[in-house]
Amino acid sequence: MAAFLPEIGRPTALPSVHCGGPCFAALTAPRNRFARGLGGQLRLAATVPKFPVPVATPGRRSSLFRPRRSAPSTESRVTPPGDEEPGKKPTVGKLLRLLLPDAYLLGAAFVFLVLAATMQALMPHYLSQTLGAIIDGQSAGVLTYRTFRRPLLSLLLASMGGAIFASIRGAFFIVIGARASVRLRTRLMNSLTEQDIGFFDTTKTGEITSRLTQDCQKSADQVSYNVNIFARTVVGLLVTLCFMLYYSRTLTFISFVTVPVIVLLSKKYGELMQALSEKTQQKLADANAVAEEALSSMSTVRSFAGETSEKARFASTLDEYYHLERHRAKFYIAYLTSTMALPQLGNCVVFLIMGHLCMRGMPAPSLLAFVFYLNSLNDGFSSIADVYTNIVQALGSAARVFELIERKPSGSLRVTPLDEEHGAQKAEVVVARPAVAGHLALSGINFSYPARKGRPILRSLSLECPPGKVTALVGPSGGGKSTCIGLFKRLYEPDAGTVDQAES
Ligand SMILES: Nc1ncnc2c1ncn2[C@@H]1O[C@H](COP(=O)(O)OP(=O)(O)O)[C@@H](O)[C@H]1O
Ligand SMILES: [Mg+2]
């Protein structure tokens, strides 16, 4: 452990007792009911090694860290193991704070983002100018390359600039995402290595690693990806808004009212539709499960003459599926009609007003530009709705990760809160780790493993190991010898009683 922890960047003080080398234990039997219970069979001899002085942490030493001279021994806390303090539900703010240490990178990304958005918003403008020049030149009979060379060149520059700036912005966000991912994983790993052994007894390794891999990946990736999309969309919408205002205030106002309403409505419909589809799929899976259950135990079904009831069970699940599908079919009419018709309706309203404006002298190429802007408006609001859905999903993953990061280990191994700046835990143990001289004692210990709370392993156990003496802990397999050593090593905290590690 001593060698392992610094590897993840956090040298730490260890529990005061090291049990390396030959196993040691001492029994001064009279006080020990455990030993008496085993009929004095405990005889395994070993030596009490000289205890290493706990590794002090660099930097500021907490006053708690200094050995308490007045107290001859440190009593272990009698904290029930696994006193989980689940993390608060993560908010979007908490997720975003993951990116804060990279504020300078975010700033640089934002500069390129604004440049890219401006270039991209210029494209419809130059496109309409190019087309306008061609149409006007042709109708006036003076169309040459010179007529549309300038707007075309500007279009080319805007497209090239847009592509280059957008790619640099994207690259920044990839790096920001990777850094957030590393930071989150490091923080989680730091927290995991601090957890009490009871936590590892009761939590499946698969679950822990899935948080370390999938959940971390989802939260960190999603947050950087969506911040990218969100910022890009908002800036894009603002620049688009400026260009639209430049062309027509009335049209801009109407578009900014109709487009978001239509987009959000169709998104909502889409979600409802998806939820319905999932429900019907679930019903189908239920029906399959019923069939599988019956078919795989056909002899039992026959023995109890259960064929009719099994058939009825299968049919009733399928019936539920059919009703859901009928409901989905009705909903589909409303869904598709509205999602297909509403945007067209919105477009038609805008075109009607465009026609009206043209009658009052607005040049037709400007309308063309406006149509392109309408398109980007649609895409923009659609992206914002997606960002919302993605962030909600990322919050689910982040909740599981933050819960573990914020879990306080039970017992004596408590550390300071996370160092937000570097994503690592500060190397400072806040609980006393006095130098010990080798006197060990357990007194009045009641203990059961966190994984099997209902099964007491030690009851009212007291034993003492004086320093420098060869002592023995002997007993049948499963008698609790290793458990005693585990308590000395502070791998577990007793339910009652004290673990003493005297200084002298
Ligand atoms: N991590 C654990 N979780 C739950 N029960 C445990 C754990 N380790 C040991 N036990 C149980 O505690 C009892 C004492 O085990 P142990 O201290 O290993 O005995 P010994 O070292 O004397 O053979 C046994 O019944 C064992 O099954
Ligand atoms: Mg053992």
UniProtKB/TrEMBL annotation:
Which UniProt keywords are present, listed alphabetically? Answer: Membrane, Transmembrane, Transmembrane helix
Give its localization: Membrane
Looking at the record, which segments are called Disordered? Answer: 57-90
Q: Name one GO molecular function term.
A: ATP hydrolysis activity
- Domain ABC transmembrane type-1 intervals: 108-393
Q: Name the Pfam families on file.
A: ABC_membrane, ABC_tran
Q: Which domain of life is it from?
A: Eukaryota
What is this protein's record name?
A: ABC transmembrane type-1 domain-containing protein
